[in-house]
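step=predict obj=N-acetyltransferase domain-containing protein n=210
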Amino acid sequence: MGRDLGGACISPCGNSWTRPGLSTTIRAVTDKVERRTPAPTSPKSVRFVELSSTTMRALLKDDLARASAEAGVALTEYFVTDTAKWVWQYRVNQLTSDPGYTGWLTEIVVAEPEGAVVGYAGFHGPPDEAGMVELGYSVVPVYRRQGYARAMLTALVHRAVAEARVGTVRVTISPDNAASLATISGFGFVEVGEQWDEEDGLEVIFEVPV
């Protein structure tokens, strides 16, 4: 999947490895974006809309009218980009191979009470054998730097905490994605390594125990 600078990686993990000194670079990039980006005036409220395979298949066919009707929210061109379609195809494949993925995949995110569709976010699948879940999120460009990414992250972490099977939450972020690096600050995420993703390139792996 192409790199989406509007959020944390929403595609599955690549191969993990480590490199000394990257933490210093990440702190510098994060400090820079925090200095130039004003904090939202108040926390944002969002709700999640689960997508059926039918809805995702409609998006894969560029049928926004049908997808919007199925989802019950007005979806925009952002949800039929090549990047988004890669996500929908991958999720459809997951659901087809194992219905147990239901409830643990990418969902549409809606701002409340405004009702605007501000992005998509979710998990890459249910907890693995070690109790780890990985999350990702992507914000529609016009709604970036307004607190929606943090609202998505907060909701997903809370959902993970409420699930007894989850012991660790993971997120992977490109080291030059300053906005997302700033978003995860304050949640207790700790850098545990790196990975190379065939689509997204170098990503830093962060985890937090729950």
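step=describe
Confidence is low (pLDDT under 50) at residues 1-6, 13-39.
step=end
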